[in-house]
């Protein structure tokens, strides 16, 4: 089912009207039309393409999935590809939803590849700032981009919180190494997926802001600048998180190496201490005559030697922090 809206002189006059009436409304230069498709058929795209004069390459990109975020300019319209993103704290995974949009002088046509993109939230943003609707398509495009970028920003923030929790887990007294590795890998995978949709948005919004595009008027320019600022902050934050995840992994490996060195020192120290009585008793266990052979004095000499040497080694290792 398609969603439709029409604004006349900045006022919402009708919504959810049949798609066939779009051309009738566009005859009035004072109107702005929004049309939304979710998983459209080829016939749906063909009909609106013929009606609005859309370029065949843009229509082809709108029908295909897994496109790169971009903003292309054609003779009669512009074409946008973007992704919404949501980070699930429970699973640690990023969910993406692809959106294509055709931007003409009087119309905004959005094409959702699945129902994961919450278009109702975009409509609520439009309703909450209805005083800007006089700017026409720029008003609609701003609400769409603002929703997408805010979703990116929220996802980056949630991912940052998860990485901080991972840092705390690294410095536990007895960390679960398997769980650490699993969470670290999952967060790195989510961060990579998020970077692929966040970083290209800098180019997208920057292209929209270019004056030769003639898309943004003086009223909407500050609002688009605010969106661009959020895009830059989300991009820079994403890059810093990438370095932070790598640092967490390196720290985890260093701590593992330090713990292993400590264990090896302790094991080696105890082995050295245990070697003393083994060596002494082995010497006195020789089946040949020697001073103290088969006498009580020989037993006490060997016992005292074992105790003194063992205590001496223990004190020496303890002083060097090997035990």
From TrEMBL:
- Molecular function via GO: cobalt ion binding; cobalt ion transmembrane transporter activity; magnesium ion binding; magnesium ion transmembrane transporter activity
Where found?
A: Cell membrane
Pfam families noted in UniProt = CorA
Primary localization: membrane
Q: Which SUPFAM superfamilies match?
A: CorA soluble domain-like, Magnesium transport protein CorA, transmembrane region
GO CC terms in record? plasma membrane
Please provide the record's keywords in A-Z order. Cell membrane, Membrane, Transmembrane, Transmembrane helix, Transport
Presence of the UniProt keyword Isomerase in the record: no
Record keyword rRNA processing present = no
Which InterPro entries does the record cross-reference, listed alphabetically? CorA_cytoplasmic_dom, CorA_TM1_TM2, MgTranspt_CorA/ZnTranspt_ZntB
How is it placed in the membrane, per its record?
A: Multi-pass membrane protein
Q: Which domain of life is it from?
A: Bacteria
Question: Which PANTHER family does the entry link to?
Answer: CORA FAMILY METAL ION TRANSPORTER (EUROFUNG) (PTHR46494:SF1)
**To which protein family does this belong?**
Belongs to the CorA metal ion transporter (MIT) (TC 1.A.35) family.
Designated name of the protein: Magnesium transporter CorA family protein
**Lineage summary:** Bacteria, Bacillati, Actinomycetota, Actinomycetes, Pseudonocardiales
